[in-house]
Structures are given as structure tokens and as C-alpha cells.
């Protein structure tokens, strides 16, 4: 394991991902984890992340300097470098000029940490402070015009430090540097794979659940809960019960696919609750987006509870919690609530479960997909784009009715089909249609029509926090538009959403 100490940097998760991309397992822990606990995890290398503080602040995060004496290789990045310098007897000063963005770094050597890298390499910088004097035993191995000590190393103690960020993709040879640290300094073997992960996870589930234990899972049909179901099925077979609440607001073909996969490929004990009527009844007359979310969240829990109660007592509750949620909750984000994303977070407690099974807790989204493929889930399911919990309800502006759900569902299916046919389904990160509340005048045959306007929304994004509208080919848009107005009753106009996030959100509600 490579342990990453998180000093609150915005790229910390990326460090973990880059390390794992080298087939080396890594975990992020808070900077203030006691040294004994860190060592108990038997790390073969430690990475200190960047962070927003200045090492000279009175309340700046500090670590126990004994960490550097534990005989474990250390890589300090940005704040991690400055902290290392300070703790080991070097100096840190405010840079004359703050460096931010792409900077050319001159690498003084092409061996060791910098093995295989170009003498001048584009790197991503983001700092106000920098190391002004190396601690004893360190050598400077890279510089920029404004930063004379852009990287330093102490080979004897296997301590490496870089002021730039090797983990971001703007640092063109960053992965090479991380590989060098992992393979040349830490002696990693690079044999961490998804099938190895699956084997371990399946064994752990068997151990936890025991010979006769039973597990309950709320299956949404999304990637995460489906991968959890497949994994637990492989561990304990039909002692896994999946409850699938169909709220009638899923995309075309989705609920049938879920039923097919989990009754044929992974034949768990499968309970399908067809609750569309109830959801539509409760959504009648409701137009406010947050109220829609609230009603759907509440109904979902009630329907699920009813089904779960009917099943009698099961031993464990399984959840598809993934690593970014774990890291974020560990840090307690204070982000403002823009939209209340509904999930099943509070359910296990309400149902009286104290024991949780969360086999994806340590995985990033793309790793979950890779695991899904390894387990043999269908590709369409594994590569499914994100779909919001409240489903099509937040893609129908205004009141939700079964008729409107049908219009948005059919138009969405056409859009998805055409995007896939154009080979763009893995390049555009999220794409869907919206039934705008606008009706407009048209003509069909010789008749006047007064029907709905469908908006096409397609975005590219890395993290769904910011997004750009996808530059779809015009002929693709033309085909989608023609098909929607021809094939979907009551859709008479198609418009394209060309707004970035921010200021717009990805969904319309
Ligand atoms: P926004 O619209 O906030 O969307 O830019 C960002 C991502 O979150 C998804 N989303 C939701 N997911 N429940 C969910 O589970 C929700 O209420 C919800 N609202 C938005 C959205 O699809 C996008 O991927």
C-alpha cells in the first residue's frame, strides 16, 4: 500500500488515482493520522499531498518528523515538499512571483526520480511559497525561472520532493515521475489488478457474512449498486436479496435490463417493486424541483421499507458507497447545497441494520467500471452514464405526468441511440433530453400543432462539478432532431443547450 497523507489539496484524489493506474494500491488518509496508525498499515511508500496552508501559519498542518526516519520512501508534493524542507532543517519563503499554471521545469538529470523525463518538461504549478534552502543531505534536481528549487531529493533516505504537481494531467510527464517513485524508490511490484481486487473482496464478504448470513441490497440499476450485487452474488449466491424499486421514471429499457441481468446472469433473490402509480400520484401538481426530489426520495424509502419489512430479518445491508464519498465525508465538506441529491444513506439505520457491507468503499468510479467488466456485467450497464436518482422527473420541467415521462423517455432513447451510433457514447460524459415546459406552434401535414419543445443536453466533464457543452457534429444533431419530431408524438421542436456549468447546472432542474 502507498499511503497518501492529505493536507487538503484539491488534487489529492488524483494522486491516489495516478498511483493506482500504475497498478499499485493506494489509500488517502487525513494528515493528522497518528504515525503509529500509519505504520500499522505497513505502507511501502508515503506521499504527502499539496494543501492550501502556508507552512509558517500557526495552525498549519504538521506531521511527526519521525515519519522521515521510519525507513519508508516519501514523496512530498507542493505543500508536502515545503513541510518536508521545514521539518528537516531547510527553509521556506514566499516566492518573488507566484507561479500558477503551466510552467517549463528544467530537469537537471534524467535518472532516479526524473528517469526518462525530458530536460525541459511542462509541469503544473500552483504555489505562493517555495523552498529557498534544501535541508542537509538533499540535492536540487529541477528548477524553473522563478523557482530555483523545483525538486529535491535525498537518495540515502529515499525522500523526494517536487514543487509542481505530477498528479495532474497538465504535467505532461507526471505519471512517469510517479512511476519512478513507486518502482525505483518504493520497489512496488505493480501487480494490483481488478481481478485480484475482486478475489479479495469476495473472500472478505464470505468471511464477514459467514456460512448462513444474508444480505439486503437496494438495487437502482446504476453502475455502483449493480457491481455490488454482482460481487456479493459471487460471494454468497442467493443469500443476497436485491430490492429494485421501479419508480416509473427510468430510461427506456432500463428496468427490463436490470431484471434480466439479475434474474439470468446473476440470479440473486430479486424483488421488483413496481411503484410507478404511487410516484406519479404523489407528484401530481408538483412543479418545484426540490419538492419533486423530496417526494421521490421519501416515496423511495417508504416503498423500499415496505418491501424490506415483508422479507423479514436479514443480517447485513449492502451499499454502493465509493471512494470519493468516503474521502469527502472524512473531510466534512461545507459545500452549499445547490441540489439535494437523494441516495439511500439513511436507510440502513431506519431499517435497523447495524452491519453494513460496502465492497466499493476503496474504489474510484472508473475502477468500479473496470471491476464490473471483470465480473462479467454487460458493457452497456457498466459504461452507463450517470443518471440522477429522481430520474426523468427532473428532466420534465413543470408537472410530471406519465404522458410527459413517455415523451422524454422516447426522445432520450433516440438521442442515446444516435450518440452511440456515432461512436461518441464514451466521449460525451452525460447526454439526455429535457422536456421543456414550452409549447410552440408548428405545422404537421396541413394541420396547426401546438406541441412540446425538446432540449438536447450533452456535456463533457471530468468531475461533474464543472462542465462544457459537447460540440456534437451538426449532422448528428440533424438526425436526432429529425427523428424526435417524426417519431415522438407531441414533440414538435428541438433545441440545443449550449451552456457551460457554471453558471448552468447539468440538469435543468
Ligand atoms: P447538476 O445538475 O447538479 O448535476 O449539475 C451534476 C450531476 O449530478 C446528477 N444529479 C443528481 N443525481 N440525484 C442524483 O442522484 C439528484 O437529485 C441529482 N441531480 C443532479 C446529474 O445527473 C449530474 O450527473
Strand order of the largest sheet: 2-1-3-4-9-8-7-5-6
Major beta-sheet overview? 9 strands, mixed
CATH class of the largest domain: Alpha Beta
Rounded average pLDDT: 94
Shape: globular
Q: What is the CATH superfamily of the largest domain?
A: HUPs
Strand content: 15-25%
> Any idea what the radius of gyration is?
26 Å
Ligand names: xanthosine-5'-monophosphate
CATH architecture of the largest domain: 3-Layer(aba) Sandwich
Q: How many domains in all?
A: 3
C-alpha termini separation: 42 Å
Low-confidence stretches: 331-337
Enzyme class: ligase
Keywords: Ligase
EC number: 6.3.5.2
Protein name: Glutamine-hydrolyzing GMP synthase
Structure report:
This is Glutamine-hydrolyzing GMP synthase. This protein is of the alpha/beta class. The chain folds into 3 domains: 2-185, Rossmann fold (3-Layer(aba) Sandwich); 194-382, HUPs (Rossmann fold, 3-Layer(aba) Sandwich), CATH 3.40.50; 401-496, 2-Layer Sandwich (GMP Synthetase, Chain A, domain 3), CATH 3.30.300. It has 15 helices and 18 strands. Strands 2-1-3-4-9-8-7-5-6 form a 9-stranded mixed β-sheet, sandwiched between helices. Strands 12-11-10-13-14 form a 5-stranded parallel β-sheet, with helices on both faces. A hairpin with a 4-residue loop joins strand 8 and strand 9. The longest helix is centred in the middle third of the chain and has 23 residues, at 289-311. The radius of gyration is 26 Å and the shape is globular. The two termini are 42 Å apart.
Amino acid at each position: 500500500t502507498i499511503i497518501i497523507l492529505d493536507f487538503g489539496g484539491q488534487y489529492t484524489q488524483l494522486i491516489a488515482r495516478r498511483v493506482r493506474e500504475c497498478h499499485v494500491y493506494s489509500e488517502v488518509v487525513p494528515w493528522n493520522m497518528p504515525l503509529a496508525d500509519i505504520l500499522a498499515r505497513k505502507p511501502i511508500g508515503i506521499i504527502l499531498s499539496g494543501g492550501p496552508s502556508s507552512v509558517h501559519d500557526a495552525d498549519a498542518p504538521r506531521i511527526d518528523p519521525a515519519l522521515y526516519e521510519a525507513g519508508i520512501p516519501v514523496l512530498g508534493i507542493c505543500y508536502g515538499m515545503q513541510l518536508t524542507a521545514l521539518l528537516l532543517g531547510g527553509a521556506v519563503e514566499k516566492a518573488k512571483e507566484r507561479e500558477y499554471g503551466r510552467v517549463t521545469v528544467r530537469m537537471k538529470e534524467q535518472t532516479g526520480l526524473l528517469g526518462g523525463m525530458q530536460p525541459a518538461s511542462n509541469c503544473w504549478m500552483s504555489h505562493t511559497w517555495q523552498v529557498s534552502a534544501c535541508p542537509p543531505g538533499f540535492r536540487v534536481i529541477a528548477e524553473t525561472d522563478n523557482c530555483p528549487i523545483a525538486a529535491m531529493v535525498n537518495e540515502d533516505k529515499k525522500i523526494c520532493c517536487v514543487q509542481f504537481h505530477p498528479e495532474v494531467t497538465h504535467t505532461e510527464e507526471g505519471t512517469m515521475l510517479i512511476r519512478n517513485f513507486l518502482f525505483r524508490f518504493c520497489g512496488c511490484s505493480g501487480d494490483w489488478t481488478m481481478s485480484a481486487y475482486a478475489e479479495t473482496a469476495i473472500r472478505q464478504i464470505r468471511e464477514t457474512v459467514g456460512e448462513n448470513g444474508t444480505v439486503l441490497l437496494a438495487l437502482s440499476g446504476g453502475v455502483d449498486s449493480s457491481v455490488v450485487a454482482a460481487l456479493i452474488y459471487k460471494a454468497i449466491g442467493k443469500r443476497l436479496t436485491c430490492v429494485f424499486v421501479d419508480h416509473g421514471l427510468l430510461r427506456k429499457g432500463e428496468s427490463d435490463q436490470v431484471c434480466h441481468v439479475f434474474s439470468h446472469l446473476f440470479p440473486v433473490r430479486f424483488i421488483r417493486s413496481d411503484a410507478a402509480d404511487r410516484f406519479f400520484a404523489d407528484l401530481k401538481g408538483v412543479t418545484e424541483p426540490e419538492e419533486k426530489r423530496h417526494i421521490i426520495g421519501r416515496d423511495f424509502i417508504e416503498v423500499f421499507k415496505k418491501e424490506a419489512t415483508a422479507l423479514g430479518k436479514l443480517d447485513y445491508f449492502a451499499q454502493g458507497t465509493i471512494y470519493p464519498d468516503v474521502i469527502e465525508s472524512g473531510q466534512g465538506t461545507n459545500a452549499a447545497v445547490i441540489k439535494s441529491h437523494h441516495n439511500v444513506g439513511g436507510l440502513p439505520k431506519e431499517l435497523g441494520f447495524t452491519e453494513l457491507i460496502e465492497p466499493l468503499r476503496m474504489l474510484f468510479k472508473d475502477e468500479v467500471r473496470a471491476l464490473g467488466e471483470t465480473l462479467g456485467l454487460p458493457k452497456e450497464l457498466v459504461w452507463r452514464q450517470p443518471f440522477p436518482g429522481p430520474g426523468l422527473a427532473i428532466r420534465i420541467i413543470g408537472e410530471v405526468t406519465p404522458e410527459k415521462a413517455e415523451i422524454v423517455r422516447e426522445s432520450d432513447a433516440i438521442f442515446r441511440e444516435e450518440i452511440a451510433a456515432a461512436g461518441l457514447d464514451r466521449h460525451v460524459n452525460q447526454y439526455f433530453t429535457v422536456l421543456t415546459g414550452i409549447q410552440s406552434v408548428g405545422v404537421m401535414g396541413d394541420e396547426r400543432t401546438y406541441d412540446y419543445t425538446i432540449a438536447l443536453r450533452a456535456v463533457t466533464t471530468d468531475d461533474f462539478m464543472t462542465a462544457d457543452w459537447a460540440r456534437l457534429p451538426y449532422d448528428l444533431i440533424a438526425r436526432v432532431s429529425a427523428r424526435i419530431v417524426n417519431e415522438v408524438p407531441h414533440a414538435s421542436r428541438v433545441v440545443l443547450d449550449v451552456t457551460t456549468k457554471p453558471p448552468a447546472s447539468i440538469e435543468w432542474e
